[in-house]
Amino acid sequence: MEATERAVNPIRRWGGRAVLLVITGVGLYVVTPSLLTMFGAWPQLASVEVHWFLILTVLETASLAMLWWLARIALAPPKSDTTTPHLGWGTAAAAQLAGHAASKVIPGGAATGGVIQGRVLVTSGQSAGAVVSGLTASNLLTTAVLLLLPVLTIPALAIGPPPAEQLRLGLLVSLIVAVVIVAIGTVALTAPKVVHAVGRAIGTVAHVVRRRWTAQGTADALSAQRERVVAAFAGRWWWAVLAAAGNRMFDYAALVAALVAFGAHARPAEVLLCYVVAQALTFIPITPGGLGFVDAGLTGLLVVIGVPADTALIGTLLYRLFSFWLPIPIGAMVWAGWRIGTRGSSGQPVSPAE
To answer: Which domain holds residue 236?
Structure first.
């Protein structure tokens, strides 16, 4: 009996990982041609003026800083708690960068990235329960912002197309959209009846497609998620919504900057819609961080809205260089430094899976 259990346990332990590796391998095989095409355009980056590299660095750093701020807000201890240390900017940044790097290189890495981020935070003195609830609420809030963006693009798409040169106004559009998101978030977190009504409306429409979705069930689920976010950011929800909106809008502004750097002409609202779809592709657990699928999808969508194919290709490469590739080695170095520091202070190696 024991021998049988020992034989089964490795299958249970490694079977899921083996399936993930196979799926990832197939996924990478499918997207390899598009990745090779994109990397073939790498020499064209030499034609980009230096100030655009500086602009993208600032925008993507600001986008990440919003996540660090969001973590600090979620884990800020109550005034009555004098034992839990305040989360410092350095620790918040180290935890997020390490988790981000893991999620981009490991199959199904979102879960592992969360474990690593949580491990760093707990080791810094944060309560394990607070870390779990805080990170969960943060993910819910940033995902809600992403889901809200397509709705906000509808009015802009309904208006007649502006001059092509106004893609440069995409930076201004990101600011306007961020303000609107904060306003909507304020209503959502302070008016539960509004959230319940929206949930019923969504459930009614979804019931037509999937019968098991009901108006009441969807409303209850949406209200439950709202309560979780409200509880995590009690008294600080306004700043939390601002941080979540800033994270998405700075990242979108980086995409706009990458396209403008190559003289692309497109409507800011259409680029925003392309951005939303590309971000949604990162949730597909086929390749780490949506590698290949996001690149090919974003390039194809930009071509659909009128950006020349070569410009869409190199613009996507420039944007992904700063949003996807560069944070990986930075996060890996942060993670290695944290492990070395932890081992040195405790005398024992630390496993992220503990």
So the answer is: 69-78+89-346
Tokens, residue 283 = 């949730």
DSSP state at residue 306 = T
pLDDT in tens, 17-71: 555 555 555 545 455 666 666 777 778 888 899 999 999 999 999 999 999 999 9
Tell me, yes or no, whether 38 lies in a domain. no
pTM of the model: 0.84
Residue 60 lies in a domain: no
Which residues are within 8 A (CB) of 339 and not within 5 positions of it... i.e. 6 or more apart?
349, 350
Token pair in block for residue 107:
């199959």
Give the chain's domain count.
1
- pLDDT per residue over 216-245, tens digit each? 888 888 889 889 888 889 878 889 999 999
Tokens of 331: 């996060």
Residue 5 lies in a domain: no
List C-alpha distances in Å: 305 to 49, 193, 210, 252, 343.
25, 38, 31, 16, 52
Domain membership of residue 61 (yes or no) is no
272, 252 contact by CB (below 8 A): yes
Rounded CA separation 339/352 (Å): 9
Q: What is the DSSP letter of 261?
A: T
* DSSP designation for 293: H
- State the number of CA atoms in the 13 A half-sphere of 339 facing the CB: 14
CA atoms within 13 A on the CB side of 73: 26
